[in-house]
Amino acid sequence: MSMARSHVLIGIDAGTIIAGARAVMAELVNNLTRKGLADEIAVLETGSLGIAGQGVVLVVYPEGVYYANVTPADVPELVDEHLLKGRPLQRLLLAEAPKRYVIHRDKTGLLKEQPRIVLKNCGIINPERIDEYIAAEGYEGIAKALSMKPEDVIAEVKNSGLQGRGGAAFSTGMKWDFARRPESDVKYIVCNADEGEPGTFKDRLILEGDPHKLVEGMLIAGYAVGAQQGYVYIRGEYTLSIQRVEKAIADARTYGLLGTNILESDFTFDISVMTGAGAYVCGEETALIESIEGKRGHPRNKPPYPVTAGLWGKPTVVNNVETLANVPDIIKGGAAWYRGYGTEKCPGTKVYTILGHVATPGLIETEMGTALRDIIFEYGGGINNGKRFKGALVGGAAGAFLGPDMLDVRMDFVNLKEYAAVLGSGAILVMNEDTSIVGMLKSVLHFFKHESCGHCVPCRIGTAQLVEIIDRLAMSKGKSEDIDRLLHISEIMRDTSFCPLGQSPVLPISSALKYFKDEMVSHIA
Amino acid sequence: MYREPILKKYEPRLDNILYILHDLQNNNTRHYVAREDIKSCAEYLGMPYSYVHGVATFYTMFSLEPRGRYIIRLCESPPCHLMGSSSVLDYLRERLDIGVGETTDDGLFTLELTSCLGICGVAPAVMINDEMFGKLTPEKIDTILGERRKNL
Fold it and tell me: Of chain B residues 23-52, which have a CB less than 8 A from chain A?
C-alpha cells in the first residue's frame, strides 16, 4: 500500500447524503483518477464531521482545511486549486473549523481542549471498516473486560459514575448490577436506538459514524450482566444507521468478536437488529420491549422493572446508544480517568445536537457541567444573522424552555433539575428574538397529541385539550382562563398518566410560562 | 399468490411481525396494509386477525388506506417548525390540491405528517418513500414533485 500525501475525508451521514455527498465523492474519485492522482490523494468515507445543514462537508488532511456546501460541479476546481496547486479554495472554505474536542473552562475562565470520548472516531475512521476501528484501539475494552471478573467490570462502571444518556440519568452500573443478580438461564442486553425526541439525532450520528463502538459497548454489558443475546432497536426511518450497524455486526462475527468463545474465552454473545415502525412511545423502555416481542408498543406496569423481568420475562438491560458508547473507554481508561471529565455528580461528557438559529448547527461533545452560553456561543457560533438570543428549548419536546438569564447555567442532569429543567436527550434548539413562543409550544403540543398512544385517558384526552387551547392562543383568540388551564391540565397529566409521554407536556408548558408569560398572555383576545 | 414468498422469508414468530408488515406494505402496489395482508399475516403467525390489525394500526409507518406511489411525510416537529415547516405544508397542500392524509387523483402523491425524522440540521425536511430531502423551499418542492411526475 502506497502512502498518500493528502487525505480527503467526506462526512457521509443521512444529512449530507441529502445534499449529494455520494455524488461528490464519486466525482472526486473520478477526477483524481483522470488526473493520475489516485495514488497520491486518498478519498475516504467517514461519519459526520459534526456540521449540520451546510451541505456536503469535507476536510483535507494534513492541513485540516474544511470545505462546506461542495457540489460535484465544484470538484474540478477544488482538485486543481487545493490538491494540485496547494491553494485552499476560498469560496468554499468553512468560515470556522468545527470544535471537535471537549472544552474545559478552568476557574480563571480559560479554555482548554480535551479529547472526545464518545465521538472520538466520528468523522475520522471509516465506519464500515472494522480494521479502522481496531486500529483506533477498538475492541481493547472488551479484551480487557474479559480478563476481569464480571463483578469488577460492573464496579468499574459504577465507580465511573456513568448515568443513562437517554435522559433518565440512572446509574448504568447499578442497572447492570440489578440485572446480574437474578438467576436466569437467559438474559438480554437491549440498545435503545429508537431516537425520536424532536431535535435529537446524536444517536443516529453515533450509529452512522462509529457503529463498532456500540457493538463493543454491548459486548461489555453482556459479559458483565451474563447475557448471551443483544438487540439494537433502531427506528425504521434511520435507513443508513440500520445498514451500518448490520454491517458492523456481520464484520464482528467474521472476526470472531461476536458468536461463541469470543477472544478465546467462554463468553458467548450475539446481536440482532430490530427495526421500529414509527412510534415515539417505543422509546420508553417497556414499550420498546413490547414492540420487540411483536406487540403494540404500549408501556408496561412497573414494577417489575426490565432488569428483573424484561424481554420475554427475562432480566434485561435497556441502555441508550450514547450510554453504551461510553463503556469501552471507561473499561480501557478506568473509572478515575473518566471522572477527569465532567462534574462530581455527573462525570463524563455529553453529546448534543445544537440546532435552530445558530451560526453553526451540528453535533458536539462537551463536558458535563459546561455552561449553556459556551454551548451556544463557543460551539454553536452564536446567533446567526446578527439577531439576539431569545431562549432555547433544551432536551427536546419533553424538555424545558430556558430564557436569557439561564445562559450561565451549568448543564448537567443534577444541576438542571434545580432549575426545573432537564438535559433530556441532549437536543438544544436555539431561538432568536423573532421566534414566537406560542408557535413553538403549539408545535410541541401537537407532537405529543400525535404521539400519544391512546392507552391511558389522561394522556389521550389531555393532549387533545392542550392542542385545542394552544391552537386558540396561536390565532390570538385565547380566552382569559386558557393560560391557567394549560398548566392545570398538564399538571393533572403529570400526576395521572401511565408513562412518561403523558407526564411530559407540563415541563415545556410551565417553563414557557416561567420565562415568557407576558408573551403568552398577549395572545388572549 | 404473491404474499406467500414474502411470508416464507420469515420464521413464523411473533417478533417478526413488524418486518412482515413492512415487507407486505412495501410490496403492495397501493403502498398500504390491505385486509388481505393482515389476513395472510395473521394466518401465518397463527394469531387472530384483530391482533395483527391492532399492531398495524399502532405504528404510524403502516397505513390501512391505499396510498399513492410517493408518500410525502413532512416533519412537523419543533426544529422543523422553527425553520418554517408550516409554510411548506401550506405550499404542498396548494400544489398537490389535497389535505393531510389524502392522495392525489392521479394516485401519485399522498401527503402525511410525521414526527421528527432526525435530520434537523437540514430543517424543514420531508421523507418521500425511502429518500430524505431538506432545506425545503417552494422552488425545491416544485423540482422534487416535477422529477417524480416525469418518472411516470
Answer: none
Separation of first and last alpha carbons in chain A: 73
| % of chain B at pLDDT higher than 90 | 86
Strand duo A58-61 + A6-11: pairing: antiparallel
My answer on whether A454 and A420 are in the same domain is: no
pLDDT, tens digit, 9 for 90 and up, residues A381-423:
999 999 999 999 999 999 999 999 999 999 999 999 999 999 9
Closest residue in B to A453 (Cα–Cα):
B58
Report the CATH number at residue A164. Answer: 3.40.50.11540
Alpha-carbon span A397 to A164, nearest angstrom: 19
Domains of chain B by residue range: 3-58, 70-150
Q: Is residue A402 part of a domain?
A: yes
| CATH number of domain containing A481 | 1.20.1440.230
Residues A221 and A313 in one domain: yes
Among A237, A295, A451, the strongest candidate for a mutation testing the B interface, having the largest count of B CBs within 10 A, is A237
Asked if A314 and A201 sit in the same domain, the reply is yes
- Cβ contacts of residue A247 below 8 Å, gap of 6+? A128, A211
What torsion, rounded to 10 degrees, do the Cα atoms B35, B40, B44, B47 define?
20
Q: Model confidence over A40-94: pLDDT tens digits?
A: 999 999 999 999 989 999 999 999 999 999 999 999 999 999 999 999 999 999 9
Q: In this predicted structure, what is the pLDDT of residue A278? A: 87
> Model-level pTM?
0.94
Q: Is A188 on the interface with B (CB under 8 A)?
A: no
Q: What is residue A2's predicted lDDT score, i.e. its pLDDT?
A: 61
Parent domain of A412 = 349-432
CB spacing of B54 vs A296 below 8 angstroms: yes
Q: Grid coordinates standing for A36?
A: 493520475
Q: Are residues A327 and A357 in the same domain?
A: no
Q: Is the pLDDT of residue B94 over 90?
A: yes
Same domain membership, residue A78 and residue A55: yes
Question: How close are the terminal C-alpha atoms of chain B, in Å?
Answer: 27
Does residue A350 sit at the B interface (CB-CB below 8 Å)? no
Question: Is pLDDT above 80 for A233?
Answer: yes
In angstroms, what separates the C-alpha of B130 from chain A's closest C-alpha? 8
- Whole-number Å distance between alpha carbons of A230 and A222: 7
Kindly state whether residues A169 and A262 are assigned to the same domain.
Answer: yes
Q: In the CATH hierarchy, which fold is given to the domain comprising B70-150?
A: Glutaredoxin (3.40.30)
Average of per-residue pLDDT across A123-131: 96
**A334 and A400 share a domain?**
no
